[in-house]
Amino acid sequence: MRTATIHRNTKETQISVTVNLDGTGLAQVSTGIGFFDHMLESFAKHAMMDISVDTKGDLHIDMHHTVEDTGIVMGQAIKAALGDFAGIKRFGSAYVPMDETLSRACIDLANRPYLVWQVVFERPKVGDMDTELFKEWFHAFASHGGLCLHVETLYGQNTHHIIESCFKALARALRSAIEIDPRLGGGLASTKGVL
């Protein structure tokens, strides 16, 4: 089983994340931010990955540290569960429509972090959450997970739909990228011989 547990404790946040890359989409998520919990649960379901996320952050200040640090630890956990990335397909992409919205995510799991974020929100908040924090989560997740990640909303107006379609597209793309390719024989999908 490809699993990992990562803990991170700072003066701003205390976080524990466990992932099972070969799960069934089960999620136990508690960050103190309802809409964010909903997005992480949706991510787990569509990635077919079991996740447990327990985040206690300085929400009395704002949500920034809670969201960003959760992205850091989730990325670290997925990277740890992948080990040396041997045998995985490496690349993945997905389009996800939600009503009037269409978003796309493309991934290269090459241990060379990068984020391209082509997403615009109509509203500054969804529920109580600042929409600008979603880029922070995706950036932290990609940086600490070793992902080259491109996320784009091709069109859409509803902020909830835009955010959710981005999370689901990421999940579906990641699900494909971490899949074991038996033709690799446990080797790496790279001419360099290392990722």
Automatic annotation (TrEMBL):
Its EC number(s): 4.2.1.19
Known catalytic reactions: D-erythro-1-(imidazol-4-yl)glycerol 3-phosphate = 3-(imidazol-4-yl)-2-oxopropyl phosphate + H2O
Top-level EC class: lyase
Protein location: Cytoplasm
The entry's keywords: Amino-acid biosynthesis, Cytoplasm, Histidine biosynthesis, Lyase
Signal peptide range: none
Keyword Lyase (UniProt): yes
Record bears the keyword Transport: no
Listed pathway(s): Amino-acid biosynthesis; L-histidine biosynthesis; L-histidine from 5-phospho-alpha-D-ribose 1-diphosphate: step 6/9
UniProt similarity note: Belongs to the imidazoleglycerol-phosphate dehydratase family.
Protein name: Imidazoleglycerol-phosphate dehydratase
Organism: Candidatus Phycosocius spiralis
